[in-house]
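Worked Example 4.2. Consider the chain below.
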Amino acid sequence: MPDPYESKFRICLVSDFFHPGMGGVEMHIYQLAECLLQAGHKVIVMTHFRGERHGVRYMPNGLKVYYMPFLPFHDNVTLPTLFSFFPLIRKILIREQIDVVHGHQATSALAL
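Applying the procedure from the previous section yields the following structure tokens:
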């Protein structure tokens, strides 16, 4: 029987707050993703676009980041509309074969 603690997961970290923003949540998500990658898990991040950052980007440590085409409306938080979020998020989660979705920050509508 395989050891469940030896299993590798496909993890999606979701938040309105991520690089290139520089704050506590942004740094926490980046460092958490880095630790999970080092442990052998597959990790992606989903966030909204920021300026010229849109589409799929790769960080220097190999972290794959989806900068979603959702417009922030106040304090870098996206407008919570299930009808606009769900189809694209579902498509990415299926494509990446994600096992665990982890949302960050109480004010992040994207993480709901």
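The helical segments are 24-38, 82-95. Residues 24-38 form the longest helix (15 residues). Compare this with Example 4.1 before moving on.
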